[in-house]
Specification:
The structure holds two protein chains of two kinds. By secondary structure, chain A is an alpha/beta fold. Chain A has seven helices and ten strands. The longest helix of chain A has 18 residues. By secondary structure, chain B is an alpha+beta fold. Chain B is built from 13 helices and twelve strands. Chain B is elongated, with a radius of gyration of 33 Å. Classes of the chains: A alpha/beta, B alpha+beta. At the A-B interface, helix 2 and helix 3 of A face helix 1, helix 10, helix 11 and helix 13 of B. The structure holds adenosine-5'-triphosphate and magnesium ion (MG).
Chain lengths: 242, 403
């Protein structure tokens, strides 16, 4: 895979959260999942998001992925105020700049691995032949060349996760958001996935934000952000070198 | 992009074979049922209409009494016609092609060891003109035979078959109960009416012979009149009414004790009953269309959870609301059209087979085909599209979480 022509400015802050809160429900049943988050991510960073279950990791990832909207606060993506974008503009942002790996795969059922990986390219309007070629390459990159025609039901959890990763990177996004990509995998499978992801970061300069519970997985990242009860635990944030 | 969407939709249809075929099945059944029922219904109506115009479209019918009651109806108090009534009509009213007096009685006919109960009709040779009914063989009554009341007879095709089989009956004498009668002609077969009565089950004899030898009176039960081509039956009807009121000495202002019907009225009476039948069939068909629609609805609603998740995935990957909706719309339209076409084919085939079996004409009614098709398509599209629209308006994460 060739290196994408990314912005060479490695220090540009591409993601900026300011005072982001998320409240589920209302009144006495209100659940404050995020209580005011400030976060900066620079171009080409590999960040691990950690924290106990229920601390708001998935919530913040969904907001970063433009899948969900914050209750309050601002989200700047490449300087754009995402809160001011229309639904369609946010869809285009997801389409062209973001790749998402979900905690639960979220592949299309009864649809072959290859077709699942092709999906983002369809919406990008990539011509059929090129689409096929890119999808084949992406599946090869995650080591699933032999499984192109298998449907999710015929794949193991680790294989499904790799299909999901191939789908997330096939359109060459600027940012890869991965919510516990190794959560369902054994440790050797997890290491394979982590090698794969960190290779994208190293070789393509892909900015990666990854949620994980395990310190061994977080070790692949350049920086860790700790969540605690809907807030970033500043004492725990370790600014490692890139 | 539209072609792309179309490909996507048809791939999606093939991927969900069970859901797709159940949806299609609902549409197919609904459309086919409506088309079959309505086609057969209008075929039956057309058959009745054809039967009646077969009687002669410019025919009028006089009967004693009020209203149209058919044989044995409430007309006992009104006096019967006489032969000279028919003669007076023929003489005094212009523009008539034929006037046939008619009386009938169920009578046992006997030839050799065979016997057959049939309607023996006393009339004149004008009967075949009025009824537009050619002879198969032999001849009609002569003037002399009618005047003298000779016992000669013309057989309907059914009577000929029952008494003679394949044998030629001309010149042979049969018995009408005790009356011996020579066969001089055979009528061409007319077949059944749409109500299943056999029109060929009759024997014609001269009116005078019928009155003297069978009925034992000089009554005429019915007078058939046919107007010449281009003469308004309305005018003829008026003229006959005036003449008959005069002959029966009915004071001005009193109601007539007879009635004159033209074919239009008779046709209206009969087609009304087939219209009721058609409406009934259409109602049954509408119910099956509705059931088909509910079937489609159920399939669509059951798959909403799965579809909502799918929509969530597509949105998360960067599809815009309208792209997702376009896909689902195209999918619903493709499915519905396919089911609709299959339903039309099946419905027409069933209607053609049914028309053959029931011996009614096959009448293609494009309006019904379109209505049935559009209804099912609308059901498919509405229930395929609106749940999808609801899902596509969610935040992607909401759609993904859908249980
Ligand atoms: N749709 C929702 N409705 C109500 N509460 C929610 C919803 N989604 C998340 N929450 C709540 O918000 C809080 C944060 O949830 P979140 O999914 O972000 O946790 P997490 O850090 O990802 O946990 P885990 O490590 O278990 O995935 C939790 O208390 C959760 O119960
Ligand atoms: Mg989570």
């Amino acid at each position: 895979m060739k290196t994408t022509g990314m912005d060479p400015n490695q220090n540009q802050t591409i993601i900026r959260l300011r005072g982001v809160t998320k409240v589920y429900g209302r009144g006495s049943a209100a659940m404050h999942a995020l209580k005011g988050i400030d976060m900066d991510i620079r171009q080409g960073e590999f960040v691990a998001v950690m924290g106990p279950s229920g601390s708001g990791k998935s919530t913040v990832m969904n907001i970063l992925g433009c899948l969900d909207t914050p209750t309050r606060g601002q989200y700047f993506f490449y300087g754009m105020d995402v809160g001011k974008l229309t639904r369609d503009q946010r869809a285009l942002l997801r389409r062209h700049y973001l790749g998402f790996v979900f905690q639960g795969f979220n592949l299309l059922n009864r649809t072959s691995a290859l077709e699942n990986v092709e999906l983002p390219l369809i919406y990008r309007g990539t011509p059929v032949a090129k689409r096929r070629k890119l999808a084949v390459e992406a599946l090869a990159a995650v080591g699933l060349s032999a499984w192109e025609s298998h449907t999710p039901g015929e794949l193991s959890g680790g294989q499904q996760q790799r299909v999901a990763i191939a789908r997330a990177i096939v359109a060459h996004p600027r940012v890869l958001l991965a919510d516990e990509p190794t959560g369902n995998l054994d440790s050797s499978r997890s290491r394979e996935i982590m090698e794969l992801i960190s290779a994208f970061n190293r070789e393509l300069g892909l900015t990666i934000i990854m949620v994980t519970h395990e310190t061994s997985m977080a070790a692949y990242a350049g920086r860790r952000i700790h969540f605690m009860d809907g807030l970033i635990d500043n004492g725990g944030e370790q600014k490692g070198a890139l | 992009m539209l072609w792309e969407t179309f490909l996507l939709a048809q791939r999606e249809i093939r991927r969900n074979v069970l859901r797709s075929s159940l949806t299609i099945l609902g549409i197919v059944i609904g459309v086919a049922a409506v088309i079959t029922m309505v086609t057969l219904g209008s075929g039956a109506t057309a058959k009745v209409t054809a039967d009646i115009s077969n009687l002669g479209s410019n025919m009028l019918m006089l009967r004693p009494g009020q209203g149209f009651h058919g044989p044995g109806g409430a007309r006992s108090s009104a006096p019967m016609f006489k032969t000279d009534d028919a003669e007076a009509i023929a003489r005094d009213i212009s523009g008539l092609a034929a006037v046939a007096p008619l009386s009938s009685k169920m009578t046992q006919t006997i030839y050799g060891s065979r016997n057959w109960s049939t309607s023996v009709i006393g009339t004149t040779d004008d009967f075949v003109k009025v009824r537009n009914w050619p002879l198969e063989s032999g001849r009609l009554f002569t003037e002399g035979e009618m005047r003298a009341g000779k016992t000669v007879c013309v057989l309907g095709a059914t009577v000929k078959k029952e008494l003679f089989g394949g044998q030629d009956p001309l010149g042979i004498s049969i018995r009408l109960r005790k009356l011996s009668c020579q066969v001089i002609g055979v009528l061409q077969p007319k077949g059944q009416t749409s109500f299943g009565t056999d029109q060929d089950d009759l024997v014609l004899i001269p009116m005078r012979a019928f009155q003297r030898r069978i009925a034992g009176n000089t009554d005429v039960k019915t007078i058939y009149v046919s107007a010449e081509d281009g003469i308004s039956t309305e005018k003829v009807k008026k003229a006959i009414e005036t003449l008959m009121r005069e002959r029966r000495h009915i004071p001005i202002g009193d109601e007539s004790n007879f009635h004159v019907r033209d074919m239009k009225e008779i046709m209206d009476t009969l087609t009304n009953s087939t219209r009721v039948l058609t409406a009934l069939l259409a109602a049954i068909a509408a119910v099956s269309l509705l059931v088909g629609g509910i079937g489609i609805m159920n399939i669509m609603l059951v798959s909403v959870t799965e579809r909502t998740r799918e929509i969530g995935i597509r949105l998360a990957i960067g599809a815009r609301e309208r792209e997702v909706l376009m896909q689902f719309l195209v999918e619903a339209v493709v499915l519905s059209s396919f089911g609709g076409l299959a339903g039309i084919a099946l419905g027409l085939a069933a209607a053609a087979a049914g028309a053959q079996a029931l011996n009614v004409p096959f009448i293609f009614n494009i309006k019904i085909v379109l209505i049935a098709f559009l209804f099912s398509a609308a059901v498919g599209v509405i229930f395929g599209y609106f749940p999808a629209r609801k899902a596509a308006r969610l935040d992607p994460i909401e759609a993904l979480r859908h249980e």
